[in-house]
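Slack export, channel: ligand-projects

TW: morning all. Re-posting the request from yesterday since it got buried. We need the structure predicted with the small molecule present, not the apo form. The ligand is 2-acetamido-2-deoxy-beta-D-glucopyranose; the SMILES is in the block with the sequence. No rush, but it would help planning for next week.
GE: picking it up
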Amino acid sequence: MTASSPMVLSLLLFASLTALLVLAPRASSPPLPLPLPVVVGDEEAPPAAGGGAAGSSGGGAGVEEGPEDLALSRRVTLDASEGAAVASKVAFMFLTNSDLTFAPLWERFFAGHADRFNVYVHADPAVRLRLPPTPSFRGRFVAAKPTRRGDPSLIAAARRLLVAALLDDPANAYFALLSQHCVPLHSFPRLYEALFPPKAAHHHRLPSYIEVLAGEPQMPARYVARGDDAMLPEVPFDRFRIGSQFFTLARRHAVLVVRERRLWRKFREPCLPESQDSCYPEEHYFPTLLDMADPAGCTRYTLTRVNWTDSFEGHPHTYAAPEVSPRLIAELRQSNSSTYEHMFARKFAPDCLGPLMAIADTVIFKD
Ligand SMILES: *[C@@H]1O[C@H](CO)[C@@H](O)[C@H](O)[C@H]1NC(C)=O
Ligand SMILES: *[C@@H]1O[C@H](CO)[C@@H](O)[C@H](O)[C@H]1NC(C)=O
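GE: finished. pasting the full C-alpha cell output, ligand included:
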C-alpha cells in the first residue's frame, strides 16, 4: 500500500503546481478549491491579461503557448481515460470575441439536462463582454488569450478550450466548438440521442463530426500561404484538407489534438504578407490532422450548417431577424448526408434572438 504513496504525492504535487500556473495570472479571481482550468468570471469576461489589442503581424499574441498551456496539455496525457461510469456529457465550447447574445436560447436548450452537459467559454480578453453571463455560462470562462481571424490564434483558443474541457470533467465525451453566432436547430435530447445512439453498446468508438474536404478550388493557394514548400515534409499537398472549424470531436480525438505538436508547429507559422487572403489555418489544421490520424473515425460532416451563398470576404451569409422563420429552421436542418442531420447553424446576427426565442418551443426544440 505504502509503495504507492510517492506516486500519489508526486501526482498531488504536479496537480497543485498546475493549479498555481493556471490561477497565477488571475490573482484577482477567487481561488478555486480544485485545480480546475476553468476561471471564475462573475459578471464579465476577465479583463485583458496581456494588455491591448490582438497582436500585430506574424501570428497573434494568442498563438504563444505559455507554461500554463503546456502544463495543462501535459496533464491531459495523464488523464486520457475514456468511459466514465457516470452518464456521458457534451462539452459546449464557445469561442467568442463579443457578447453571447444567444445565451437565453441556449439556456432554454440546456434546461432540464444539467447532468448531461458542461459549458466552456473562451472570450477574447481584448474585448469586454457587456452582457452578464446567464447561469449556464457563469464561471465557465477559461483562461483566454487574444484571437484574430485568419491567424493560428483561433486554433490555439480551440486547443485551450479542449484542454480545459478534458481536464474539467472526465464524463465529457463529446466536444462541440461553437461561436457566439451559432444557434441550436434541435432539442437537447435529439442531439444527445444522435451523439450517443441508445443501441451503441460501446461509446469508445464514437465518431467525430468534422468536415473533411479535398480538391476544393482554394486549396492550392491555401497550401502555399506560408511559402511553396513550407508545409513539407509533415503535410504533403495530397494530405492537406479543408473543412469548417466548427467540429464536434469525440473524446479520443480531443486528446489527440491537445497532445499533438508536429502539425501544430507547422500550422502556427504565420502566412506570408502577400498571402493574407489565403490564410485560414483553423480551416485546415483540424481536418488535416484528423484525416491523417483516424480517417475512419470521422464522419467528414460537420453538425453545424452554414450558408456560403454570396459569401463576402470569407464571411458566410449572416441571417438577420426578418429571415428567421419556421421554414428557415426546416431548411437549415436538411443535410446532404442521409445519416447525419445538422444540429447547429451559423451565422446569426444578434437581432435574431427575439424571433428565435419566439419559435424556440414550437419549432426549434420540437422534434
Ligand atoms: C443563403 O443565403 C442566401 C443569401 O446570401 C439566401 O438567398 C438563401 O435563402 C440562404 N439559404 C438558406 C437555406 O437559408
Ligand atoms: C448539398 O450539395 C450540393 C451539391 O454539392 C450543394 O450545392 C449544397 O450546398 C449542399 N447542401 C448542404 C446543406 O451542404
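GE: first-pass observations. The chain has one domain: 2-53+67-303. DSSP finds twelve helices and eleven strands in the chain.
TW: perfect, thank you
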